[in-house]
Specification:
Length: 613
């Protein structure tokens, strides 16, 4: 009841604001009734009168001024201008007639139109919400709760309507493997309950848009034969405080009724950004929504049979609170597909499309580096449209090539088609990092190396073992870290005798580390054990601006010299290692060019085959 009360308040406020506006906008003229007009006319009070008429229809208005009331104008809207003219004539009142173009009337009635429009839109929104909730409830119980914004807007798919199974999700082999246990749990929660086994409540799917996160979620529900609730984080971000939280409450109430089931929250970053982050403004609504979500997740126990999947492409901006144990304590990375996976995805999407015998899916996979599953699906769809336009019965390679140009251009910003040269540079760059990671004793091992564009500025990445948390870093370790950072640039220089801007981030990171060694950790003999930097918590964005130097010119020069010394030393050490291992560098780059992404085993195999220098 309280919720709908709040809603009426909102509507009332909106209506009042519009009425006020309406009233003020019409303040210099006031409307009068026919009766008033006739009495003014009869009592000879009218000073001047003007008939405004529309040339196309006989409706119009008579506007007049009255003795003793200054410049105030009175307006009477009439449906028939002719009859008013007759009355004025009969009374011997002089008047002028002016034609008002059609849109003039629109202007006069605009406020009214807006008020009516707003009320209409509000009404429609409510109606559509109403029907949604009714669908959810299977068409009954919700009907009395008209005007209820707090109802969750989740869509629910019953298992028989879920279009996906694991078979439809191409690639993502490890990810699917990880999800099998979840499927099994959803199929027989009792089995797990009896053994007291704990299954995660929440799983975070992290990856760029279009990589199949939603699909994977649906496939899990499809495989397990359970309902699939889905809602998007951005749906929660409403203009009214409290609505999001109410929706969350409702969503989970529904889910509990239908358990076992999957709850899928898309774009969770829309509600679960780090609290207090962001620029200005209060984020009450978001925080309330997030808190409610956490309360709900804490509230049901592991074996209740609800698994919450959440998707995001930005794990770095998420509030750490949502990743605590018992919440989203498991992360699954859903990356962009490599060559082989792209071919598998293409195969899934050509299942229902007749192909000409010249179509070479492997080749298409080769030329679509950086494409996501959604991009590939789109590519094939465009090709199919083209062949239909030309009344052919199958898709030819030519259709796909044409579609490629179209899609490649259409999504230029999102998935730029990368040239072979760029690919090669990236392959050497990442190999440079990876080889140093592997060979230097205190860092590494390498977990995976990839030259698939991440879509967030990086052309590739070299990833050490994840979650290797260390409390302290020694001086030697930091030096090795700097060497690894420089490795990409050095490799580029060795092979292409040139460097690209792609290496600039590495350089920044390396320099910052070297500077910290000197000014913070007292790791340079020349400068000695002294800390020149105040502790600066990363509280707000203007961090670098707030950094104040606490030392003089001379010290600054010595610090710079020391930093340079460290950098130079690391550079030459790293260069030596890479030069000594030139054969491995080439082999690694070749392998990367072929496979785009290689794992630890494949990478390490490069070292056992060749002799290490
Ligand atoms: P996300 O949720 O990660 O943004 P979706 O699951 O919505 O991506 O994927 C959008 C579409 O892209 C899917 O409907 C499917 O057609 C296609 N797609 C994406 N990934 C795959 C995949 N791994 N296998 C097959 N098709 C995929
Ligand atoms: Mg999605
Ligand atoms: Zn790099």
């Amino acid at each position: 009841m309280k919720r709908s009360g709040g809603l009426f308040l909102y509507i009332a406020i909106i209506v009042i604001v519009f009425l006020l506006w309406f009233a003020t906008s019409a303040s210099h003229t006031s409307n009068v009734s026919m009766k008033r007009f006739r009495s003014d006319l009869k009592n000879d009070k009218i000073i001047s009168a003007e008939i405004k008429q529309n040339s196309e229809v006989p409706t119009g208005a008579v506007q007049y001024r009255v003795k003793g009331s200054g410049t105030e104008k009175y307006v009477l809207y009439v449906s028939n201008v002719n009859s008013i003219e007759k009355e004025l004539d009969k009374a011997g009142q002089l008047y002028s007639v002016s034609d008002v173009p059609n849109d003039g009337w629109v202007k006069i009635f605009l406020p009214l139109i807006i008020v009516v429009g707003v009320i209409f839109v509000l009404f429609m929104v409510m109606m559509s919400m109403q029907t949604r909730t009714m669908m959810q409830d299977g068409g009954g119980s919700g009907s009395s709760k008209m005007l209820d914004f707090g109802k969750s807007r989740a869509d629910m798919l019953m298992p028989e309507n879920i279009p996906f199974r694991f078979n439809d999700v191409a690639g993502l082999h490890e990810e699917k493997e990880q999800m099998r246990e979840v499927v099994d749990f959803l199929k027989n929660p009792d089995k797990y309950k009896k053994l007291g086994a704990r299954i995660p409540k929440g799983i975070l799917l992290v990856g760029p848009p279009g990589t199949g996160k939603t699909m994977l979620g649906k496939a899990i529900a499809g495989e397990a034969g359970v309902p699939f609730f889905s809602i998007s984080g951005s749906d929660f971000v409403e203009m009214f405080v409290g609505v999001g939280a109410a929706r969350v409450r409702d969503l989970f109430a529904e889910a509990k009724k239908k358990a076992p089931c999957i709850v899928f929250i898309d774009e969770i970053d829309a509600v679960a950004r780090k609290r207090g982050a962001g620029l200005g403004g209060s984020h009450d609504e978001r925080e309330q929504t997030l808190n409610q979500m956490l309360v709900e997740m804490d509230g049901f126990n592991e074996n209740q049979g609800i698994i919450v999947l959440a998707a995001t492409n930005r794990v770095d901006i998420l509030d750490p609170a949502i990743m605590r144990p018992g919440r989203f304590d498991r992360k699954v990375y859903v990356g962009k597909p490599d060559v082989r996976e792209r071919e598998e995805i293409l195969k899934v999407h050509v299942r229902n499309k007749p192909l000409g015998d010249d179509v070479d899916l492997a080749q298409i996979a080769q030329t679509t580096s950086g494409f996501t599953g959604a991009d590939l699906e789109n590519l094939l769809n465009e090709a199919a449209i083209r062949s239909a336009e030309e009344n052919r019965l199958y898709i030819s390679m030519d259709d796909i090539k044409t579609a490629f140009v179209k899609v490649g251009l259409g999504t230029e910003k999102k998935t730029r088609v990368i040239s072979d040269r760029e690919k090669k540079i990236t392959a050497y760059h990442e190999s440079g990092h990876a080889i140093l990671f592997h060979l230097l004793p205190l860092v590494g091992p390498v977990y995976s190396v990839s030259i698939i564009p991440t879509g967030m500025g990086a052309a590739g990445y070299t990833m050490p073992l994840p979650d290797k948390d260390e409390m302290f870093m020694s001086r030697e370790q930091m030096l090795e870290d700097i060497q690894v950072s420089l490795g990409g640039r050095i490799a580029e220089e060795m092979i292409f005798h040139d460097v690209t801007t792609g290496a600039s981030n590495d350089l920044k990171k390396a320099t910052r580390l070297a500077r910290d060694m000197v000014t913070r950790y007292g790791m340079s003999e020349e400068i000695g054990a002294i800390c020149y930097e105040e502790d600066d918590e990363e509280v707000f964005l203007g961090k670098d601006l707030a950094r104040e130097r606490s030392y003089g010119e001379e010290t600054a020069r010595r610090i710079d010299a020391e930093v340079k010394k460290i950098m130079d030393m690391c550079y030459s050490k790293a260069e030596t290692i890479l030069k000594d291992n030139r054969d491995i560098l080439d082999a690694s780059a070749d392998l990367l060019l072929k496979k785009e992404k290689i794992g630890r085993d494949e990478f390490e195999a490069l070292f056992t085959r060749e002799t290490v220098g």
